[in-house]
Design goal:
This protein has 341 residues and is α/β, with parallel strands linked by helices. The chain has twelve helices and six strands. It has a six-stranded parallel β-sheet, with helices on both faces. It starts with a helix and ends with a helix.
Length: 341
């Protein structure tokens, strides 16, 4: 749906569009364990149903790898999807490394929950970590920023003990909200101490609050860390009205974060992530594609496209937030910012 909107707005004429290669097992294993990736490759619904009751090793792997759980179901083509999403992020990193582009976008990527040996939160292969490892071949310091409503736990965990990657996550925290990590006090350890930064937010944070906190904190991060390249995960479940999210931000507020980071002029990899009210995900990522190609004034009336009927009854690019009041007081946000600084 995002791709169709990008085409309908004519944004594809302002960029180069590439079909990614499929990431190999070896490429995925630059981060993930080989046994986990091989398990993911051979698994499919039919195999699972046939072997689950008679293969003890398969059952052990299911428990340890979390593949087949409610939030990481097995479905036909699961490994193909992982290969394509990961391959796109690797290709984007290679292009940035060789200065073939200033900004690269892979909306299929951004799967930030996957761990070294474990699937989590609809994420099977962590394309972000693999792409950052590629960027580190040419850049001394890489900054990872996450504006998904959920904490970017997989990426933070991967780089928790290094100062070559700084991770910053803006996310809903508290009340057992998934994944339950991302406390203000989680700041890294060893050589990575102070190179993990978490910005825990409460329910119904609005545009003004979100963009103010984001810009203030990220400007401080830029000044102190001085990154050579940036990876920005743009999960759209941080929009108002998302089926799983609890923020109250609009596409303009979400996009303002992308615009701010792009203004730094650093090599930038933009990735997708979560988003469960699909029509709003597509709207958001089309709008942010426009930002990435310096076209910030998309017509609010959606152009006709293959999925036009999904956007009814308003058929507009932008939508209004809910009337819910933010649970984030000025005092709370000031406290969070001060601790982050």
């Amino acid at each position: 749906m995002t791709h169709q909107l990008v085409l309908a707005y004519g944004l594809h004429k302002k960029m180069n569009v590439y079909e990614p290669h499929r990431a190999s097992v070896n490429e995925m294993c630059t981060f993930h364990g080989e046994d986990y990736i091989k398990h993911l490759k051979r698994i499919c619904p039919q195999v699972y149903s046939e072997l689950a009751h008679e293969n003890v090793e398969m059952l052990k792997q299911k428990r340890s790898f979390q593949v087949g759980d409610s939030d990481c179901p097995i479905f036909p083509g699961v490994f193909d999807l992982a290969q394509i999403a990961c391959g796109g992020s690797i290709d984007a990193a290679v292009m940035l490394n060789h200065k073939m582009a200033d900004v690269c976008v892979n909306w299929a990527g951004g799967l930030h929950h996957a761990k070294k040996q474990e699937a989590s939160g609809f994420c099977y292969v962590n394309d972000i970590v693999v792409a950052i490892l590629e960027l580190l071949k040419y850049h001394n310091r890489v900054l990872y920023i996450d504006i998904d409503v959920h904490h970017g736990d997989g990426v933070e965990e991967a780089f928790y003990t290094t100062n070559r990657v700084m991770t910053v996550s803006f996310h809903r925290f508290g009340d057992n909200f998934f994944p339950g990590t991302g406390d203000l006090m989680d700041i890294g350890c060893g050589e990575g101490k102070y190179f993990s930064l978490n910005v825990p937010l409460k329910m119904f944070v609005n545009d003004d609050q979100f963009s103010d906190v984001f810009c203030n904190i990220m400007e401080k991060v830029r000044e102190h860390y001085r990154p050579d390249a940036v990876v920005l995960q743009c999960g759209a479940d941080s929009l108002a009205g998302d089926k799983l999210g609890t923020h109250n931000t609009t596409i303009k507020g979400h996009g303002a974060c992308v615009q701010f980071i792009k203004s730094w002029g650093l090599p930038l990899l933009i990735l997708g992530g979560g988003g469960y009210t699909v029509k709003n995900v597509a709207r958001c990522w089309a709008y942010e594609t426009g930002i990435s190609v310096n076209y910030n004034h998309l017509d609010n009336n959606l152009p006709v496209n293959d999925y036009y009927e999904y956007y009814g009854p308003e058929y507009t690019l932008h939508f209004k937030p809910s009337e819910e009041a933010s649970h984030n007081t000025k005092e709370y946000l000031d406290f969070v910012q001060t601790r982050c600084f």
